[in-house]
Amino acid sequence: DSPTVDFLALPHFPERRRHDDPFADLVHSDSTANDAPLVKLDFHVMIRGGLAFVKAERTYVNKTDGPIEAVMSLPVSIHAAFFGLSAVIDGKYYDAQAKPKQEALETYEEAIDDGKAAVLHEELLRGIHSLSVGNLGSGKTVTVTTRWAELLRFHDGTGQLRIPLTVGDVYGISPLEDVDTLTTGGPTPEAMLRIQHDAASIELAEGNLCHEEGDLYFARIPGNAPIELRATDVATSELTGISRDGRLVTLQTSLYDKQRPPLNAAILVDRSGSMSCRCTYSGDNYETQHEAVVRGLREVQPLLMDGDHLALWEFDTDCDRVGELNSNNPEEFRSLLSKLGGPRGGTAVGRALKQVCASEEGKDVLLITDGQSYDLDVQQLAKSGHRIFVVLVGEGSLEANVGHLAVLTGGDIHFSFGADVNQAIQACIQGMGQKSIRGVRCDLDESGLPGRVVAARNNASIKASWSQVTEKPQVSSEFSEAVAAYAASLAFAGAEEKWAANIAVQAGLVTYLTSLVLVAEDAEIQEELPRTIKQLLPSPRGTRLYNSPPSTVAYASQSRAGIRHFAPPDSRMNSFDEANRLSDTGFPSSPIGDWDVYHGLHTLDTTPHPIFKSPPSLDWDTIVWLGEQIDWNSEGSMLVRGKLDEIEEEVAREIMNLSDEVADFVDQTRMSSLQDSCIFAIALVAYAVQGTSKWAARVYRKIMRDYGRMPEFSGLLLIYARWITDEWRNPESIINSSLEMSQFEVWAGTVNMDAIPEQDRLLAREALLYIASACGKSDAYEKGDMAIISSTMMGESFGLKAKRLMAIVEHLCDAGLIKDHSIEFDQFRIELLCNK
To answer: Do 249 and 487 touch, CB atoms closer than 8 A?
Structure first.
């Protein structure tokens, strides 16, 4: 609540960041597996008219002694419309709201800061979502329910639904930070599945459904394999729903015609090492996924027609053309398939697709893969002009990326139920024979609300329409809400971004622009910062036929500047030998010498600022380095209290060294005294790395809330940060004053700050020095002289937002120290009213 808290104008709630250190993935291990909070998983599926409405209930229990944040990254269907989130906490029901993504994240982080229980559901990538349950107290239980709707995938009168529960090893550098990356190795929960449907019959790909009552069936299913359902004789009837603004929504689905023109396509087969996993649902036959693909292609041959032109390619780390498939000669067809190589290498799908598209062999590309790769630029490949159709094979397949690419190019994606790859290939061939409809056609009214939508996906054409708002909205069932939400998701996909966010917020959707968040305002308040526990996904049932570890190619990339795995040489921190610690893992040390890297990152100017008698002995990169050695997640609760007892000895020693220097700095300024320099040092280190660690940001905010009421605290932190980052000595900065120390003391001694609020005096004094420096550069030394000052540059130098900067300038005006004559664009026209 203190106005001093925003002095640094930090990105208090930073946006989702890209994971910067790929080697962390390679050496990553989660020591909290035994504390996994997820204890129960239930699904309820309702199928009507070809649309599936799914509810997933996850029950979490905190088994630790303190508050936790349970974080779970989930693979999800690329076409699913997630529209609902609720939670039962301490026996009370809470419903979530949809908000713009950054606003939802800020709401969640504010709840964490306030000690309130909160839940956040957001999209990390298309096909990967994150579910975070924050401030769950010790021994407490929370049940979180997510809801979504999606259309069945159709082929030959059957409709298929796949709910992914885990994923295999994914090739390539994850674009997500560590805590959000899909990670397996967790316990395998047993889940309960309940199904209601209007199809002629429905079956699990593996397992039996038991009749419970009426049209309700149930089954117990393992949590380490996808839920795969197949419904026969699905009636795609007209469905109606009620939107959240009370309008009637009509959804119509029409299946594709089986007739098709000749194909002109390239078939690209994944032969990477992960395709050696055993193909499930293959009965007594021991068949790998790659063998199933070859067999599936062989079984498709009789269904091809004259005029079909199909080029056959394969890829692993490399991509090669195998030849032209002759649909009229079965023997030649089988002979060419026999030339496909066995599984090996990585899944460099991006390079393979780029090569195939560049060959111009066909307007369509049929990609057959397990999708376990981050190695593709979806946006760039979408510009190739080719439709991409995807057959995903195996229980550990990943829909993200390749599925997103299929959507963007007007293609489609189908799944193999283990050994039935031929049916998924046939479904894609049926889709390739249809007229290309890229994207979604959406008509909006003047207010940006959807009126009509036309789309094509899952081998079906879809039309949705909205009626005028009724005076009294009808009572909406959950399924009618699902119909409206699915229609809204189509409108979102077809609308311009300026309208799309509003559509998503009104419909309560989880999208790349919006998230769902709830806060338990009246639940028990947690006093300590929560420790984040990542709920690992269970390892998929499929096992590899080789025992070699993943190639480091799948993880390695150039580290960003500033991240060092060794102590800076010639510094007081060289006792903490990070290089030796990492070498124990068996990874080779960097071929670049420590001094080479350090010298490239540091060019220290030891010229002291006029205010200070001696230069700092630590540079900013060293403080950043120190921040990177701290486990802010596990140790945050101790650090906010200044307790270093359980911190690694070398790190604790360096924090104390920094604390001593802080005390010396406070003494030099003669502006204030600070009783707890250790807390100040911890806040400074947290500030230095809060842009790359959400846990450091939480520690920083917690300290600012607890100590920010001290008028000196925030101001001193600002000055010290600017001092140690050489801001004063930046030749491009207007604040590079020519004033000598003695001149400053004489001048400052004549300035009366009594009229300025106490909590703002320190910053106001700094701002006045800045203005005096600007006047000096403009030869405006005398009372009444004026100088033009860039408010943008001044705001950046002080780390202040425009509103806060204006408040400080107004304080100086009210105190009679300056006069602000005008503001033109981003400039102040300042007149000094105080002495020379």
So the answer is: yes
Beta-bridge mates of residue 242 = 248
Q: Dihedral of the CA atoms 93, 98, 99, 104 (nearest 10)? A: 50
How far is residue 345 from each of residues 171, 283, 317, 762, measured CA to CA in Å? 10, 28, 6, 61
In this predicted model, what pLDDT tens digit does every residue of 638-669 receive, in sequence order? Answer: 999 888 988 888 888 888 888 888 777 666 65
**Contact by Cβ (8 Å): 574, 567:** yes
Write a three-state SS string for 397-466: CCCCCHHHHHHHHCCCEEECCCCCHHHHHHHHHHHHCCCCCCCCEEEECCCCCEEEEEEEECCEEEEEEE
Give the whole-angstrom CA distance, residue 109 versus residue 3.
19
Which amino acid, 461?
S
- Distance between CA atoms of 593 and 294, rounded to whole angstroms? 50
Residues 6+ apart with CB under 8 A from 643: none
Give pLDDT tens digits for 381-435.
Answer: 888 889 999 998 888 888 888 888 888 888 889 988 666 788 888 888 888 887 7
Which H/E stretch holds residue 146? strand 141-151
Contact assessment for residue 640 and residue 632, using Cβ atoms and an 8 Å cutoff: no
Q: Tell me the two tokens of residue 784.
A: 């009444």
- The pLDDT score that the predictor gives to residue 122 is 96
Q: Six-digit token pair at 219?
A: 């089954």
Q: How far apart are CA 366 and CA 689, in angstroms?
A: 45
| 597-629 CB burial, b ≥16 within 10 A, e <16 | bbeebeeeeeebbbbbeebbebbbbbbbbbbbb
Instruction: Tell me the one-letter amino acid at 278.
Output: R
Phi, psi of 813 (to 5 degrees): -65, -45
- Cα–Cα–Cα angle for 372, 177, 38, nearest 5°? 80
Residue labelled with tokens 């997933």: 56
Tokens describing residue 59? 């029950």
To which H or E segment does residue 52 belong? Answer: strand 51-61
Domain annotation for the chain: domains and CATH numbers: 3-11+559-729 (no CATH), 31-234+513-520+528-534 (2.60.40), 264-432 (3.40.50.410), 741-832 (1.10.10)
Q: Are 476 and 521 in contact (CB under 8 A)?
A: no
Task: Dig out the tokens for 43 from the structure.
Answer: 């699904």
Q: Which residues of the chain are under the pLDDT cut of 70?
A: 1-34, 280-285, 417-419, 436-439, 469-476, 542-618, 665-675, 708-716, 718-719, 721-750, 773-785, 796-801, 821-826, 834-836
Q: How many CB atoms lie within 10 A of CB 752?
A: 11
Query: What strand order describes the sheet that includes 153-155?
Result: 153-155, 158-163, 227-232, 201-204
13 phi, psi to nearest 5 deg = -120, 80
- The reply to whether the predicted model has a pTM over 0.70 is yes
Cα 542 to Cα 677: distance, rounded to the nearest angstrom: 55
CA dihedral 632, 637, 638, 642 (to 10 degrees): 90
**Residues 200-223 pLDDT 10s:** 889 888 788 998 888 899 999 888
Cβ pair 445, 451 in contact under 8 A: yes
Asked whether 349 and 554 are in contact (CB, 8 A), the reply is: no
Surface-to-core class of residue 736, CB atoms within 10 Å of its CB (0-12 exposed, 13-18 middle, 19+ buried)? middle
Name the phi and psi angles at 6, rounded to 5. Answer: -95, 15
pLDDT digits (tens, 9 = 90+) for 223-266: 888 899 989 888 788 999 999 888 999 999 988 877 788 888 99
Q: Are 765 and 715 in contact (CB under 8 A)?
A: no
What are the CA-CA distances from residue 263 to residues 2, 259, 331 (Å)?
68, 12, 20
124 φ/ψ angles, rounded to the nearest 5 degrees: -90, -50
Q: Are 297 and 267 in contact (CB under 8 A)?
A: yes
